[in-house]
Write a structure and sequence with these properties.
Alpha-Beta Plaits; 4 helices; two-stranded antiparallel sheet; 9-stranded mixed beta sheet; 193 residues; 2 domains; 11 strands; alpha+beta
């Protein structure tokens, strides 16, 4: 029987069930939160990122959602240093060069207010003289540290990164460290991607 788990990955948690460096570091992994055997993350979130992570034991679906050729949307709330101007936002929308690769066009908007999120532990660095802003970015590819590299390439380094959506699935209703099973109605559109 296939299982589909939606998990709100907290900051400083590895997107894997084991840690090869556990003898050197005391880092949390998915096993500290999810007691279901034989499910695996679809894609990943870096240790210093937060938000939605989908896990399943359906290998076919995992491949389709992990492979960048299938273009499924992932939405992020990104707190950046300083306030991006329209030129920077347009560059993100049109694609930017990172590591000799031009990113695909993305949906990007400056948020008028910060999204409702629990405080991060530890909090981001705060500087009185440097304002921050939140942008929402929807990408259809997932390269290593892509969002952070994109915002840095246009001069607005990422301070906090939260994946708020995977396709039609949203973060609302979960707190950091919580997980739930997807409903059949939520699974169906994933199989159609």
């Amino acid at each position: 029987m296939y299982r589909y788990i939606l998990f709100y990955k907290p900051y400083n948690v590895l997107s894997q069930f084991t840690d090869k460096e556990s003898s050197k570091f005391n880092r949390n992994t998915l096993k500290d939160y999810i007691p279901i055997p034989s499910v695996y993350p679809v894609g990943r979130l870096d240790r210093d990122s937060e938000g939605l992570l989908l896990l399943t034991n359906n290998g076919h679906l995992q491949h389709r959602l992990s492979d960048r050729q299938f273009h499924h949307p992932r939405t992020y709330w990104v707190q950046v240093e300083r306030i991006p101007n329209e030129d920077a936002l347009n560059r993100l929308r049109n694609g930017v060069m990172i590591q000799n690769y031009c990113t695909r066009p993305a949906l990007v908007q400056l948020l008028s207010a910060p999204p409702y999120l629990p405080p991060r532990q530890p909090p981001i660095r705060f500087r009185k003289t440097v304002p921050t802003a939140w942008i929402e970015m929807t990408l259809t590819e997932g390269r290593n540290r892509q969002v952070r590299r994109m915002t840095a390439s246009v001069g607005f380094p990422t301070l906090r990164l939260v994946r708020s959506g995977i396709s039609h699935l949203r973060l609302e209703g979960l707190e950091p460290g919580q997980w739930r099973e997807l409903t059949p109605a939520e699974v169906k559109p994933l199989k159609q991607l």
